[in-house]
From TrEMBL:
Top-level division of the source organism's lineage: Bacteria
Start and end residues of each stretch annotated as Disordered: 206-255
MF GO annotations: FAD binding
SUPFAM superfamilies for this protein: FAD/NAD(P)-binding domain
Biased composition (Polar residues): 221-232
Bias kind Low complexity: ranges: 240-255
InterPro entries: FAD-bd, FAD/NAD-bd_sf, Geranylgeranyl_reductase
Pfam families cross-referenced by the UniProt entry: FAD_binding_3
Residues annotated as domain FAD-binding: 48-133
Full protein name: FAD-binding domain-containing protein
Amino acid sequence: MGVLDQVLAVTPTHTTIKVVNDGIPLTGSVPPELLREYFRDLHGDDSGVVQSYASVRRRVLDQILVEAAAKAGAEVRTNFAVRELVRDGDRVVGIRGRTADGQTVEERARIVIGADGRNSFVARTLDLPKYDERPKCTFAYWSYFSGFDLGPAQLHRRGRLASAVVPTNFEQNMVLVWGPSEWSREFRRDVPGNFQRALDFVAPRSARRSAPRGPARSGSTARWTRPASSGRCTGPAGCSSATRSASRTSARPWA
Ligand SMILES: Cc1cc2nc3c(=O)[nH]c(=O)nc-3n(C[C@H](O)[C@H](O)[C@H](O)COP(=O)(O)OP(=O)(O)OC[C@H]3O[C@@H](n4cnc5c(N)ncnc54)[C@H](O)[C@@H]3O)c2cc1C
């Protein structure tokens, strides 16, 4: 889409990542040829592959994409919620939705594309079949912290828990903690506390610099910028090392 330069202009990027696996640190980058091969396998196209790691906030990326779509001729309507599909027999011929000021609007089209994400209203309404379903195996919590700079992205794993600290927009770091689904109920009892305990357990050194204990301490601008959002990963990444190493360490730092 030609928006990479715009993204990189406002997003920190690095060419290396640090991975610490049960105390064993590795720093490096994926060779560009391997990245190209991966993209060829996955998308049949390796154009535009660069060796830069960047974590972009959705509100930054979405804004850039929306502006690029408008520039390419699309009519963009934000704050518009699709509520119904308009049908003609067994064909979908349009949508009905609500504008930001509460007006109901109907639009008709030759093709209606349901690009509405994981919990797609379109897919649900049409009862579309699911494919390649994976078991839910991982929970994850993340939030954004400012006031420190750890350099390139870091991924740590200890036993069944893992964490990542990744620099992102607005001079903040995305701090993510994940673990096996069967621990999520216990974790949810005290999210900020268990988030901190998990970080202390998995990556004590970066935890000391990244996450506050309770309210921001004096002398530190690190902060809990909003309640951590939760998500479940169902893809292969979510089911990888943290789960496979289950038998080796079952320690729960909050237990
Ligand atoms: C914490 C986290 C980290 C991730 N990290 C990565 C990563 O590093 N790399 C990666 O490749 N992927 C990552 N992903 C996955 C990635 O975000 C998704 O795969 C991707 O966003 C899916 O794109 P999409 O366009 O299908 O859906 P979405 O990005 O979810 O977009 C759907 C859009 O439709 C809108 N919408 C939904 N319903 C309606 C409605 N009724 N009316 C109007 N609009 C509607 C939503 O508001 C949204 O804007 C991550 C996901 C999470 C949660």
